[in-house]
TrEMBL record:
The lineage of its organism: Bacteria, Bacillati, Actinomycetota, Actinomycetes, Pseudonocardiales. InterPro entries: ABC3_permease_C, Macrolide_Exporter_MacB. Keywords: Cell membrane, Membrane, Transmembrane, Transmembrane helix. This is ABC3 transporter permease C-terminal domain-containing protein. Its main location: membrane. The keyword Methyltransferase does not apply. It is found in: Cell membrane. Belongs to the ABC-4 integral membrane protein family. The chain crosses the membrane at residues 21-43, 251-275, 308-329, 349-371, 398-420, 432-456, 477-500, 704-725, 746-770, 790-810. One of its GO terms (molecular function) is transmembrane transporter activity. Residues 258-378, 705-818 form the ABC3 transporter permease C-terminal domain. It holds the Pfam family FtsX.
Amino acid sequence: MGRTAIMLRLTLRTLRYRKGGFVATFIALFFGASIVMACGGLMETGIRTAVPPQRLAGADAVVVADRQFALPTGKQPDEDGDADLKYGTLSEDVPLQANLAAKVSAVPGVARVVPDVAFPATLAGGGPTTGHSWTSAALAGIGGTAPRPGEVVVPAASGKPAGSRVDISVRGKVSQYTVSGTSPQSVVYFADSDAQRLGRLLALGVVASPGTDAAALGDRLEDVLGSSVSVLTGEERGVPEHPGAARESELLITLAGVFGGFAVMVSMMVVSSTFNVSVQQRKREIALLRAVGTTPGQIRRMIFGESLIVSALATLAAWIPAGLAGRFLFDRLCDYGAVSPVFEFHQGWIPSIVGVGTALLAGVVAALAAARRAARTRPTEALAEAAVQREWLTPTRLVFAILSFGGGIALGIVTVTVLSGPLAASTAGPAVICWATGFTLLAPGATKAVMAVLRLPIRALTRVPGALAVTNTRVRAVRLASAVAPVMLATGFALAQIYLQTTTAESSRRAYTEDLRADAVLVSATGGFSPDVVAAVRSTPGVTAASEWITSKGHVVSPYDSELEEDDGLELQGISAAGSALTAIPVKAGSLSDLTGDSIALPVNHAEAMKVTVGDRITMRFGDGETASVTVAALVQPRQGFEIGLAPAQLLAKHTSDGVASRIMVSGDISGLAARFPDARVADRSTLTEAYSKQLETSAMINYLLAGMIVLYTAISVINTLVVETADRRREFGLLRLSGARRGQVLRMVGVEATAITLSGIVLGALVSAGTLIPFSLSALDSVVPYGPFWIFLVVSGAAALLTMTAVMLPAWVALRTRPVDTVAVQ
């Protein structure tokens, strides 16, 4: 029989008789693979952007304006003549050129082109919706008599019968229309002439000739129309019906990538810790194998085979649950409002293969790392060390620990000195991984140091059980580190993620509330205010100042703005020059009272990067794709990391999807506003940031959900490792009882050890999280201490203590039920 067959048979027998350790490894790999595959499903869903069409279902292809465009960086072309470009993303509805329909009609295979003219509309009693030209109703399969000018087809759910009159607000102007019919769609269809007057051409539905392949037709359309438009076919045709779909798909891709990578790193550490415990328990077996002539290579191949079998079984078992976990995460994201439920969730074979490969890699790497020292040890030394392992620090472990700590320190320095605002959080994930890896590699030494501090109070408070526990912790410090490491990981990750989110939310709240001086906000109930309303508000007795409030984004096309890192562009706020006093953003040059016509107020750092000052002209591309030359009226100094530009409200409004302001800031006596403007709601100034606050809340829920999955995984590893470690001490417990210790004394000794493990894990976990939180808090709040209630630390610590005590005491209680003589004989 060949050596390979012998080692394979030995591997299978080892798996049979060492079930505890391999079950623990199986569980760690199973959950790790499930999380990675689930994140892969989220990424595939984001990449596919599968939004089944409804209103545009009758089109074989849909043509919309491309929201991405190239921005020159100001750098010289390379040797091949290629310019260095970066890409921006437009944030508002982008209209198509009027002559585009003719070009599309001329493409071979096109039978008919249906224009979709759209605009925001608010149906009285029905809330905000969109208005569309009647011609586009054919794409939804809606027939019947076309509405005449002044007539509309409303949703059947509105309860408005044909012939009734209904008020519809479009851009702040309320008009009355006659209902000519109803439809199953949730939009309002207008006469084509009314739609042309009120809206813009946002999409073209292309109906293919019989026998024409839709995908091939899409390719031909892209060749003819160029890069300024996007041609959508298949499942992507529904994207124009949901303007936020592109942003949500990018969010899914980003979330899946970040947390998937995070899960991979955590899985590597967890599986490594679990496998290390399993191999340590078998030091006696490995020593005996070495003593009878087994070579180090054969030992490594045996453990490699074991890990391969366990990893394969775990990943195959995780295949189906991973799809359910991915669906669960996707549904929760939909519940939190981060993703629209119109998306179709996809969990194909690609993310599953990636999850399988990741789990196999984690298992194999962890097994080889754990077996390396055991396989190289000489037989006599291995037999001497089989019971107690003392040496743990190897040159390789030390080098990687130094590199990990160096990475954490470098990321902290970058966070404090380079990044600011929300961007500072981008280094948090890599930083916590670096610190956790470093402390995990040096866990035996760190555990010894913490235990040395705890020994005196433990011995003083617990006497005999404490003395036994102190002796055990001193002798078994290396193996004890395998139990402390998962507690440290779970505590460190939980504290870092939770306090990171609370600090981010507080930093953002301060940035958005400290720059406002308004006493109240007038909120439109009809979708927006017509331009003359703000003047009427100013004339209200007691009102001292009023200004529209509009938000959008824009890009500086020329000169090049090197400070603009985000592809979404510069945050813009539209205000009135007459109401500029309501904005508390410090002005460094110029005056906000000059913010009229085609002008803008730029953040100082952006102006310095572009080498422009007050009076200079720059070229802006607004959220709807329109380009305009504007004059720099002022330079402002917003909070670092929350840079915004200010623009005249009327200028910015015409480049937004709504077209008008839906909020008006007011200061002074507001008691007369409610009576004078019955179609508006008077609210406090926090309303201005409620959309952003909701976004923060959504972001928090997302982080808590996905981070909770990772923390739960590490918590499982805590239980996993501690149960296996404690159950393996049956012989030790039996010897203690045979030497005179009572069962209760042994159990109390184990309880003291569990307490020491808990305290060590919490202390080291706090250090792991501090390496991430302190630099971030300094950058975001100028404070060493992160923002958040202290009870979060107490809850996390209490949960870690509960897990640890349960995972240690329960198997110890079960092990002590066996007669001491039997436990010694079994070993």
